[in-house]
Amino acid sequence: MKSFHRILSLFLAVLMISGIAVVSASADTAAEKTSGTFDMHVAFSTDTKTDKYFYCDDYFTQSGKASDEHLRTMSAAVAFTLYGKSENPEAVFGKLPSDIGFEDITMYDMDKLTKDTMGVVFGKKTIGGNTVVLVALRSDEYDAEWASNFISGETGDISGFSTAAALIKSRLDKYLSDNAVTNAKFWVTGYSRGGAVANLLGKSLNEHTDDYRISDDDIYVYTFDAPRSSFELTSYANIHNVVDSCDIIPYVYPEIWGIYNSGVVEPVGSDDETIMTKQFNLFSPDPMDYKEFKTSDFLREFADFLGTNLSRETYSRNVAPYISRIAEIYFSLNIEARESFVEFFKAVLTSVDEDENKLSVLLPLLADGSGQEDIDKVVEFLRSNIDKVAETSGKPIDDESFEYIRSSVEPLVNVLVPVFIADLKGPLPDDADNMSLLYHILSFSNNIKGLIKHHYNYKIFDELK
Q: pTM score, two decimals?
């Protein structure tokens, strides 16, 4: 028996020593961890906020299908540094990729902003016998690129994003060819618009694994609070869509249109937040609190309401071209002119609110027989207020652009007034009286400031940390 105990003790000792040796060897061969700081844009300002990142090559030794919280946070750090434009993009936008060891940094459109551009940063690093290729997309302060966000197309993926994704894929293929990369792993990241494009690029990479001689383990895509962009409900486990359920942007293109996130949705933040919804009866001029409502439930309901009452085809044909062009006009202006533009239309809204003819124009919309004649009255009512402000304060833009915006009133009103009527005549949730109310639109507009805060990059980064 003593011999057995000695043998058992010796066996356990050998196991412990072996374990220590394995741990020691692992510690000696583990990739070095790198840390540093990065700057991200502060919303609605020219300020930046500094935070810390941590990077390690070991992030890419596991499958891209595994959601790695550290790689996820690092991906956000990279995406959040890519905002605006620079006359010296290599020094500005190449800094963080270079700091973590990526080489052959190549960029497109990081020095310009137009409706047709999509800023991107490429880089590569050899890790464990493979070449990890970074594809980081411009994700904030992209000015005129906003105009393409509104272009949905009538079918397929959202075209404002899919066109950009196809452009990035062609540039990625050129980067691989120019740098003779044959054994690639792809690290793709983007936030907001950049996230929507990254999502579709990730879908394309998954559809062409044979072309790149890779497996789905070699694709690492991380997107952050991106609008839905794919017409297919795919389940690619290597596309990780980080979404705050209280952020309005991921609901922009409604699921009821058959638009989804490719890959897996990974929620962050609290789902318990509430807002106070509003009701408005045309016969009572003051909006009033209605009830406390779960924010994420309201946003889903609001997206469904819009998607039900405004089809993708109608939106694509009769809304998107006008608001896209108006966005182009706005972003073509300098800072001072943009402020004048905004102040002009604030004055128009004030004029509309104070106009004594308001109720006589809006009340007929309550009638079951309201038709084109009543909608035409709304068009003339709005145009008259635009003209009134222009006469008193001048036009904030050139005559041609001003006339375009003025002429856009008619097609937009023709589409949006029926949506307004549907909200006006619809019942509140759980309301049996079916009162004539503005509920969805008014609740959204009264809570927009609180909702948009959930999209701020630094808030997302705090949630990830």
A: 0.90
